[in-house]
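User: Structure please.
Assistant: Input sequence and predicted structure:
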Amino acid sequence: MIFDRTGAICLESQEHYPDLKVLGASPASTSFSTKGYTFTVEQTSSRAILPATRHDANEFGEVTSPFFEIVLRLLEVRVLTRIGLRQSYYKVFSEPDGGINAVKALALQQVSSDDYFGIPGESQELVMRWESNDVGAMLHVISTPATSVLTIPDVLKIEKESEENSKSAIVFDVDYYTIAPTFRTQWSSQEWIAQTSHVIKKGIRSLLRQ
């Protein structure tokens, strides 16, 4: 069906996003952008991306909601097999080793006196996944020079050093997704994005308080 309705999706999207610019159009993959947002429709998925700092989850949900409604309605989607929200946050430090020390201090680290691969000490990067019958979350934690975090979407609103004097940062990249199928009539993209963003922020703050 997507092969027949790609054009209709673009045309109706233009009614909601007047300054929409088509980046590429084909039955296999169509993408367009507007005011910093990029929207993509593919054969098995649709995505909205905002590569900007300090964005607001409620605003993101409000802007992207018409796009998802158009795609789901025109493609006559009844069941969503996976819904996901990926967000990245950072905390900066004035010390060059502040980021790596923060990673090592997380309670997620397994304390051990043994060397792994002949390298002593705690891991400097963590990748973990949690899953239940209904939802899952992938967490990637890494330290980086502070100058690198300027390209990371959003900023976790926690007490931090002045960014002008920062030397390092700890980055939390979280991919939160559903596992159980969701009926289209039971899902509101705007509400789900706001609720899920709150869950992600709460989880990261809990890690930092440990």
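The beta strands are 21-24, 29-34, 37-42, 46-49, 79-80, 84-93, 125-131, 135-145, 168-178, 182-183.
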